[in-house]
Amino acid sequence: MLTGNEIRSKFIEFFEKKNHKHFESASLIPDDPTLLLTVAGMVPFKPYFLGQKEAPTPRVTTYQKCIRTNDLENVGRTARHHTFFEMLGNFSFGDYFREEAIVWSWEFITEVLKLDKDKLWVSVFTTDDEAEKIWIEKCNFPKERIVRMGESENWWAAGPTGSCGPCSEIHVDLGPAYGGDENSKLGDEGTDNRFIEIWNLVFTEWNRMEDGSLQPLPKKNIDTGAGLERVAAMVQGKSNNFETDLLFPIVEEASRLTNTKYGVEPEVDFSLKVITDHARAVTFLVNDGVIPSNEGRGYILRRILRRAVRHGRLLGRKELFMYEMVDKVVDIMDGAYPELRKNLKHIKKVVKIEEEKFSNTLDQGIQLVMNEIEGVKLKGGTKLSGDVTFKLYDTYGFPYELTEEICEENGIEVSKDEFLEKMEEQREKARSARTVIMEKGQDNFIEEFYDRHGKTEFTGYCDLMTPATLLSARELENGKYALIFDQTPFYAESGGQEADQGIIEGENLVAKVLDVQKQKEIYTHIVEIESGLEELIEGTLLNLTVDPVRREEIAKNHTATHLLHQALKDVLGTHVQQAGSSCGAERLRFDFNHYEALTPEELEKVEKAVNERIFMATAVNAEIMSMNDAKSKGATALFGDKYGDEVRVVSIGDYSMELCGGTHISNISKIGIFKIVSEAGVAAGVRRIEAQTSYRAYLAVLEMENTMKRVAKNLKVDLQKVEERSEKVVEEVRELSKEVDALKTKVATFEANSLFDEIEEINGVKVLVKDFKDKEADSLREIVDKAKDKLGSCVIVLGSNNEKAIFAIGVTKDLIGKVKAGDLVREAAKIAEGNGGGRPDFAQAGGKNGAKVKEALSAVKEILVKTL
Predict the structure, then answer these.
(1) What residues does 232 pair with on adjacent strands?
(2) Rounded to whole angstroms, how far apart are CA atoms 528 and 438?
(3) How, if at all, do strands 383-384 and 413-414 pair?
(4) Which residues face 554 on adjacent strands?
(5) Which helix (H) or strand (E) segment is 582 a member of?
(6) Strand, helix or coil for residue 196
(7) Distance, C-alpha 98 to centroid of its chain
(8) What are the angstrom distances between the C-alpha of 822 and each of 58, 90, 767, 826, 841?
(9) DSSP per-residue letters across 31-95
């Protein structure tokens, strides 16, 4: 019996023998703005299937990690639903098609996996006679076990228009015990759990037009997918994916950590499966760079992780456990994904931090939900109102999805539309009533310190120098020290603002402050001791002094982000919300929600709006008030931030009012100049602006001016005439390019005509084999086209040594039944240490070794002698 790892390896080996190139699994974060996550094995190759890019090789095989959450509620309930799964795939980009795809799938399933042929069923598209014929004639598959199905089951499409084609699916029959009777067929009602799809073969051969009509694609493609978990279950004789060797060790680990047993109670099994599946998803998401957050991929990760934690609580596990599950996942998966082992420490840290955050409110949230449900039932109701679901989310930080799931388990309805309406009204995210432990790995120490000393008093809003008593001094692994005082003027890194730097001094002590971190309102100063280490004694009174220049530069940038935030709302719309920021001494970074890139005109308007405000020299005021007062005055709360009963509100006249704990300048005129230096996308629906202020903004403008001066000098015009002259230069270049293209065409025609003397006949077929020096690919193609037009029936084989090898081969359509350009060029490229392909009538390729061009052309000529 093959293991899951062996199935994965054998699949790749099998298709490598069929001349497929193995590509490593792509990231779960796709290079595709239309997708949050990689949801299928074909996603990394989507540009090739849609014709947006040329495939690097005509045949590819992969095992691809995937994430899907469209039916999350079924994960754990069924035998085959997963969030994380692996898809085995073999792909052809304009190379082989139906016959090879079908025959090879049959060969692998029956000869490598050795699945029982008598238990296999196949579906084909309603009108796909060719696929059915191949199954019967090439695979000796019985016609009575082939079922024709319609568009909903056996048709793939990229969208309403574009590439599409029929599918053929391979199923395993588990027998009447799983539905139906002895006479049941694939597709019969009540047999979904009996006939298990393990492989889908997609024949992409059509282009659907705007009017709905289908036109043949110039290049036909093959896209296949076989779910590894399902295949393993069938090979290992398991009716449930969770009982395969890919998943069951993780189930056992979940069982051990929750002190439960699998296979005794259905509800216990359900929770164990949820934990198992989600542990894999969480591990791979964090490994690929996703961090828990309130939006996008981060929200998917947070949602999955919190669902798993809740199921741990249902099984009685109150201590943290999900971060421990990561070890078992890595043990099972690191053979195929060795990067997991390298990132193990990071993955566990991220998972533990998020688990800690959620665990603080989980028990309270569950009890609140149950109380609300009991209240509804006592009144004879059947539905939880949107007000209640929103209150649970906003006030207590309890995820809506968990409320929904608990209600479903207790027969109570909820309305997501009502919940979303409340979200839109308030535009604020969950405010936890409880303190969240910070994420720096010092939780136990901080908890004990807080119990003894309480929080650090921050004096930095008013003072940059404060005498303070040293309460704790600890040496760190890197030779630096972590110091905590009863009070401090140093601002700790928070809310995107970098920490202050400066000096701590005693009688002989001099310590340089490099960083300041805050956990549970306790400020830890990371310092480098320059002298007087012996004075670092708890209880000593020391002087703490903030670097005033750095503080002022950071404050300018921070205040500028408030102006920028409001300017973006004014220019782009009120939907703009801050999604993150970073304020240092050199520049500011501001992330915000917006659906598209800003135009140059919009950027100019934003920058102008900020500078106009700066020139108004408005005072910046900060005051402490209640949250209710802040809301009533219209203060903006940042998405996802949590605030206490009393908040600090920073106002810039009547222009901006935000809840903010950061440091600011006293008057916006001190910013001087505001200059945007870049704008880009950082995630789906999130844009990022980077900008500079004050003297650094001046330097940025100066550099732009100097660049313009250099351009003017190169164009030999005055600075004021650069635009006019550059437009003329562009037009001149455009005209010259046209002339060059025309000359290339003439040269190609001349060269093609001059080459006719070198044409020879092979078995009555006109053949031209010619090598060049330093000829570009476009020129070779031009010669091929001219020669084919002139000769009518021929084979043209050209190569050029440009240090690297370039090949272009043309075959007129009357001869492609004998030889195909794609096959010929592939053989040439191999010799020159390259690859490539193309259509039967024309193909191009390249190679690393230009010195091998002549040898490659000779080899192609030998092939022509044998085949023509």
Answers:
(1) none
(2) 23
(3) parallel
(4) none
(5) strand 578-583
(6) strand
(7) 32
(8) 10, 19, 16, 6, 8
(9) S-TT-SS--STTGGGHHHHTTSS--SSSEEEEEEEEE--TTGGGTTTSSS--SEEEEEEEEEESS
**Residue 676 and residue 690: Cα distance in Å, rounded?**
6
3-class secondary structure for 152-219? HHHEEECCCCEEEEEEEEEEEECCHHHCCCCCCCCCCCCCCCCEEEEEEEEEEEEEECCCCCEEEEEE
**Is the CB of residue 829 less than 8 Å from the CB of residue 786?**
no
Q: Could you give the 3-state DSSP secondary structure of residue 307?
A: helix
With beta carbons less than 8 A apart as the criterion, state whether 659 and 632 touch: no
Q: Which two tokens stand for residue 162?
A: 């574009």
Orientation angle between helical segments 600-615 and 548-572, nearest 10 degrees: 130
Would you state the structure tokens that stand for residue 636, as one six-digit string? Answer: 């903006």
What is the pLDDT at residue 447? 67
Q: How far apart are CA 336 and CA 664, in angstroms?
A: 51
CA 526/CA 800 separation, integer angstroms: 62
pLDDT digits (tens, 9 = 90+) for 395-448: 665 778 778 888 888 888 888 888 888 777 754 432 222 233 222 333 467 768
- Count CA within 13 A, CB hemisphere, residue 126: 6
Which one-letter amino acid corresponds to residue 835?
Answer: N
Residues of the chain falling short of pLDDT 50: 427-443, 639-644
Six token digits for residue 444: 């136990």
Question: Residue 202: enclosing H or E segment and its boundaries?
Answer: strand 195-208
Other CB atoms within a 10 A radius of the CB of residue 157 amount to 15
Q: How many CB atoms lie within 10 A of CB 96?
A: 19
* Side chain identity, residue 308: A
Radius of gyration (Cα) for the chain, nearest Å?
34
pTM above 0.70, yes or no: no
Q: Which two tokens stand for residue 371?
A: 């109380």
Closest CA to 243 of 255, 251, 235, 253: 251
Other residues' Cβ atoms within 10 Å of the Cβ of residue 651: 19
DSSP for 230-255?
HHHHHHTT-SSGGGSTTTHHHHHHHH
